[in-house]
C-alpha cells in the first residue's frame, strides 16, 4: 500500500523548471491567439470594395504565372486624403509578384509617365486610375504587360507617414544632390499631413520620420526624374517591410489609424492569411518598368516611351516568372505597333 501510494505521488510531481516552462508556453500561446484575434477584428477597418469583374481584363498566356499571385499596389496623389476611385491619379504603381510556395516577392515599379494604351486611348499610365478607378487601372497594367492581376490595394500619402512613424522611423542614406527638392517636399508634407518634421541639413545617413520618408519617395525633379523616384519608392517600401518584420507589435499599435486608409478588393480572410505568412515573405528583388525608354515630348507633353513596349513586356515576364522568350499576346503586339507609329521609331 505504501509503495503504491508513493509511486502515485511521484507521478504527480513535476520538476519546477518543467512546470514553469509549460505555464510560460501556455501563456504565450494564449497571448498570441489573443493578438491574432485582435488583428482579425482590426482588419475589418480596411475599406473593402469589390471590383466590377465585367470591366476587368486579364491576360493568361504565360503558363508560369500559375505559380505566382500578382497584386497591383497604387499610391494615389490625394492631397486632401480622399480615397475616391475617380479623380485621383496613381503616382505610385507597383506590381508585387509572390511565389505561391516559396513566398519570394519581386517588386516591379511602373513609371507614372509611361505612355500606354488605356482602353484604346493613349496617355500616361497614371491617368487610368483617375479615369476609371481600380478596374481600369488594373486592366491597363494587364493589357500593356500581359499580366493576370485581379487583386489590388490603394493607399494615400498619409498612410505611409503613419506607418513609418509607428515603426520609429526608417534609416536612409541621403545624397546631398537631392537636398533642395527633399526639403521642399518635407515642407509640403507638413502642410498636407500636419506636423513639423525637420529639414535635412546635409547629405548622410538619417532616421527619417513619416513626413520625411514620404517626401523622400516623392522627389521627382532631380537627375533620373520619374525613374529615380520610382526607385526611391521601392527603397522606402523595402525598408518599411524589413523593419515591420522585426517590430510587428509597434505596427499593431497604429492599426486603428493605418487600416482605414487602405482600400482593397481582398477579403478579411485573405488579408489575415497573408498576415500569418508575413515572416515567410522575402523581397528578393525590385526593378522598374520599362527598363528601356525615351523621355520625349508628344503633343507638347513629356512622356516615357518604352522602346519597345513588346521588348520590355518580354523582359518583365523573364524577371517576374522566369519565362524565357515569352511571346506577347496579339493585343499587346497591336498596342506596341501603335506606340511605334506615334513616336516614329
From TrEMBL:
Annotated keywords: Membrane, Transmembrane, Transmembrane helix
Residue ranges annotated for the Cell envelope-related transcriptional attenuator domain, each copy included: 89-245
TM ranges: 21-41
Top-rank taxon, per record: Bacteria
Family per record: Belongs to the LytR/CpsA/Psr (LCP) family.
Protein name, as recorded: LCP family protein
